[in-house]
């Protein structure tokens, strides 16, 4: 694999890891399971594509085909993360609350109806726009640092950063 892929994967992992302490400071609740979940601040999707796009821009230039491809792909991913996936998450909240309503109606009705309760759908699918921006900024930073660390005259900087 090339360095751009390594940096993008590192950025995704870092964004997922950052969700845990951010959630703790916000909600005073320790949730290590957030590392494997979707949604939340920062968006790991945005971080990954921003890292890759930034690295390509600095390494190969803004006029290259691979930069254009990465940029358009990244914009689509970020739009989807805060648009379609967020709307799906909000719809899921409504579907999950309908199950509670159905149970309430069944208890008040004299006719007994036996139905297996469906599993609740995952509610945290997409991102708020600020979560996408947070991931994009994290990705931009990782892309810049990664590029600086791959330059031959910058090896001393990277050694000091332990990157």
TrEMBL record:
Transmembrane segments: 132-150
Protein's name in the database: Acid phosphatase
InterPro entries xrefs: DUF212
Keywords linked to the UniProt accession: Membrane, Transmembrane, Transmembrane helix
Superkingdom of origin: Bacteria
Coiled-coil annotated spans: none
Organism: Neobacillus rhizosphaerae
Pfam family, one: DUF212
């Amino acid at each position: 694999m090339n360095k751009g892929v390594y940096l993008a994967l590192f950025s995704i992992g870092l964004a997922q890891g950052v969700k845990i302490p951010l959630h703790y400071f916000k909600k005073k609740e320790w949730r290590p399971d957030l590392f494997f979940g979707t949604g939340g601040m920062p968006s790991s999707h945005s971080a990954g594509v921003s890292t890759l796009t930034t690295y390509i821009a600095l390494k190969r230039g803004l006029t290259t085909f691979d930069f254009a491809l990465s940029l358009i792909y990244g914009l689509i991913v970020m739009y989807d993360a805060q648009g379609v996936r967020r709307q799906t998450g909000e719809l899921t909240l409504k579907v999950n609350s309908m199950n509670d309503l159905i149970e309430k109606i069944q208890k008040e009705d004299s006719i007994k109806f036996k139905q297996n309760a469906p599993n609740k759908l995952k509610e945290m699918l997409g991102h708020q726009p600020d979560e996408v921006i947070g991931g994009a900024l994290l990705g931009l930073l990782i892309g810049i640092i990664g590029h600086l660390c791959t330059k031959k005259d910058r090896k001393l900087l990277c050694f000091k950063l332990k990157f």
